[in-house]
Amino acid sequence: MPLHDTVHTVTERIRQRSAPTRGAYLQQLEFQARRDRGADRLGCANVAHAFAGMPGNDKLRVVVQKAPNIGIVTAYNDMLSAHAPLQHYPDLIKDEVRKRGATAQVAGGVPAMCDGVTQGTPGMELSLFSRDVIAMATAVALSHDVFDGALMLGVCDKIVPGLLVGALQFGHLPTVFVPAGPMTSGLSNSAKAKVREQAAQGLVGRGELLEAEMAAYHSPGTCTFYGTANSNQMMLEAMGLHVPGTAFVNPGQALRQELTREAARTVLGDKGASCPPIGRVVDERAIVNAMVTLLATGGSTNHLIHWVAVARAAGLVIDWDDFSALSAVVPLLARVYPNGSADVNQFQAAGGPGYVIRELLDAGLMHEDVLTVRPGGIREYTREPQGTADQQLHWADIGASRDDSVLRPAAEPFSATGGLKLLSGNLGRSVIKVSAVPPDRHVVQAPARVFASQGELQQAFQAGELDRDVVCVVRWQGPQANGMPELHKLTPPLAVLQGKGYKVALVTDGRMSGASGKVPAAIHASPEAHAGGPLALVRDGDVIRLDAVAGTLDVLVDAVEWQARTPATVPPGLLQDNTRGWGRELFAGMRRNALSAEEGACTWL
């Protein structure tokens, strides 16, 4: 199938726009690749330090026999259910590479915070910038510079983008990402959401709510909704950075363990061809492939920030216009919570990432002429892994969708367009996830109620002040203000108002969780209010029109009056309260240097 014209056009404009920065990136990659291997290049004392902690046989292999040495960067901790299974991966990997005459070292660990724990707390204001901390920690780990390849162990929201940004600084290294898989299904996501809405109305108490939450989040593995963490895994498959089909195999299975061993074999080039360097794998075609699969599955809005940063780390420049153009032609193939009732285990059972990638390739909506970590290219990622009794891996054709309420072919999609929409108007540029929003809610026009924090909105809801048609404006939530926290705690009260029949929308320069979407929300508004953006001009009672059909977001105020308004200032003490304590002081430099959301909220450019 020929490549779709729009996919071709978007890819070409990214290539042309990025020519200077991509050229400089590849030049650096070539310089790094031409050097002698680390154990031969470094001084004797450097080499001794690097391998002092190794078992004697491994020292012999890496120093004398010049065996490949693989660096492991791990985001393991047991605070994150998704990362708890990673605890024993390094031992498994070391065992596997030794069987093949190679060595491996844990080069370093990176921090990994759980947004589920920190939602609505001061810790959430460290969340977005933790991505860049993870990138820096990855660079620190790999800066030992004695590695012939790398394995990245991580799964969740900021962790995968951070690992990617860091790994791309060492783009000369073959690099494979190693996930842990989702937890098994517990209380359904829709049932959990219902209890949350009941709690917001005071219909159930803390005991009932806690019981529901613990039934939903109940074991090691990734949360089962299709939020940022699971969107990460879909996009890594589409970029060819995983062992094919490894994203959504549950922890604890024999197949899961064998896939981890296969990742070690893959980075060593154990399939008859060397594993290419990550800086070559991640080019403009791979970035577009990831964007397309995000749109085709109704994935997380957070990636309109994170993937801009990932692309920039590879010398590529993308923006929201690229996402918007692709969204107009990419069909929605998946219904997974929050844009459906299924969880990721049901998505996997229906055909999973391999089904989506095959349908998109066959429809000409993905680039097939790309490098991946495997010699078979991206077509390998259209098959699913299976194990045998003797633990031998093989991959099988997926066939037709096994549940067309969850996955549909490109010829019969749930929607002809993708799940994200760019909004622009006199309130700046923002994005909305429309895949989960009922069609009759795609246009909302109502008076504004302006808030300086999500806490203020919650108080107004509890007081009954929002029982009407309303567009809630929550400002001072951007990267430069308080680190751009997710405002996921607003979903239950706004959903309650919508359920009462009111026309409700949210407009903010903050983020929403990757699991949000039921209520129309214009998020990531740029420029942010703290940087002089137009949200600072909005007043209570202004009529705002959010039109996700036309792609507009406007305040319906006379243009002369609008231009004459004086921007509101941050309420006294608000930012001080939101930037002190809980370690937030340490991120002051990041807030000062952060670029806009559309520029990836990068702190390192």
UniProtKB/TrEMBL annotation:
Keywords: 4Fe-4S, Carbohydrate metabolism, Gluconate utilization, Iron, Iron-sulfur, Lyase, Metal-binding. Its cofactor is [4Fe-4S] cluster. This is Phosphogluconate dehydratase. Pfam families: ILV_EDD_C, ILVD_EDD_N. GO terms for molecular function: 4 iron, 4 sulfur cluster binding; metal ion binding; phosphogluconate dehydratase activity. It comes from the Bacteria. Belongs to the IlvD/Edd family. It is an enzyme of class 4 (lyase). Binds 1 [4Fe-4S] cluster. Residues 68-378 form the Dihydroxy-acid/6-phosphogluconate dehydratase N-terminal domain. Pathway: Carbohydrate metabolism; Entner-Doudoroff pathway. The gene is edd. It comes from Diaphorobacter nitroreducens. [4Fe-4S] cluster binds at residues 156, 223. It catalyses: 6-phospho-D-gluconate = 2-dehydro-3-deoxy-6-phospho-D-gluconate + H2O. Residues 406-601 form the Dihydroxy-acid/6-phosphogluconate dehydratase C-terminal domain. The keyword Iron-sulfur applies. Catalyzes the dehydration of 6-phospho-D-gluconate to 2-dehydro-3-deoxy-6-phospho-D-gluconate. InterPro entries: 6-phosphgluc_deHydtase, Dihydro-acid_dehy_C, DiOHA_6PGluconate_deHydtase_CS, ILV_EDD_C, ILV_EDD_N, IlvD/EDD_N. PROSITE patterns: ILVD_EDD_1 (PS00886), ILVD_EDD_2 (PS00887). One of its GO terms (cellular component) is cytosol. Its EC number is 4.2.1.12.
